[in-house]
Amino acid sequence: xxxxxxxxxxxxxxxxxxxxxxxxxxxxxxxxxxxxxxxxxxxxxxxxxxxxxxxxxxxxxxxxxxxxxxxxxxxxxxxxxxxxxxxxxxxxxxxxxxxxxxxxxxxxxxxxxxxxxxxxxxxxxxxxxxxxxxxxxxxxxxxxxxxxxxxxxxxxxxxxxxxxxxxxxxxxxxxxxxxxxxxxxxxxxxxxxxxxxxxxxxxxxxxxxxxxxxxxxxxxxxxxxxxxxxxxxxxxxxxxxxxxxxxxxxxxxxxxxxx
Length: 259
Fold this sequence. Notes:
Blueprint: E1 3-6, E2 16-19, E3 32-37, E4 47-50, H1 53-60, H2 69-80, E5 85-90, E6 100-104, E7 113-118, E8 129-135, E9 146-148, E10 163-166, E11 174-179, E12 184-187, H3 193-197, E13 204-210, E14 216-222, E15 231-237, E16 240-248
Parallel strand pairs: 3-5
Antiparallel strand pairs: 1-2, 4-5, 6-7, 8-13, 9-12, 10-11, 10-13, 11-12, 14-15, 15-16
C-alpha cells in the first residue's frame, strides 16, 4: 500500500498521512424503476419484470413508432451498467388482436381443422402479413378517402399502416390511416379514389398489411418417439427458436393430448 507523509516527522506539529484505499469505490445499483405506456407486446394491465435488456426485448418487444418507452428502457439499461431493473405495465386501447393460425389434420382426403395456435398476447408482433379482398355493396360506397366495406369483425385500426388497391384503378395503392370496427376504411386525406375510378363500376378492393419480418411461426413434424401416431410442434418468434413440443397427440384419451 502506498503511503505519503506531509508535515514534520519529529517534534510538535501536525503530520498528514495519505494512503491509497484498499479498493476503488464502486457505483451502487440504480435500483428499480416503473414505467407504464405503449409497448409492442406483453399482456396489458399486468406487471412485467425485466431485469436486463435481453428480458425486456423478449417480453415487451422492440422499438415502435408510437412510443418512446422502449427507447427510454434501453437508455436505462445502458446507464445502469447491469444494475437495477424495470417494472412495466403495457397500456393499450383494447383493440389489439392476437395473431392466430389454424392447424389441420394430415392424411385426410379433406382438410380437417384440429385446433389453433395463438400468439400469447395481442399486437402486430405476432403476425407477419395480412391480406383481404372483398366487394362493396355499391360503387357509391367508395368515396375519395373512404371505403364502407360493411365488415363488422375487424378491430379498430387493424389495417392502419397498410394499403388498399381498387380493381378499377390500375397500378395504384392508397395508404390506409385507419379503420373503424364498423368496417369503414379511411385512406390519406390527399387521395382521390372516387375520381380515379371515374365512371367505373368495379366494386372489388384489396387490402395488404405488411409487418416487416415480425411473426410467430410454427413448424410441424413427426413425433420423435412415435412418428406414425404423434406429431411435433416447434415455435419461433421472428425466426428465433423459442420452444419445441416433441411428442403431441390429437387423441383426447392420450396423455400427450394437444389442446
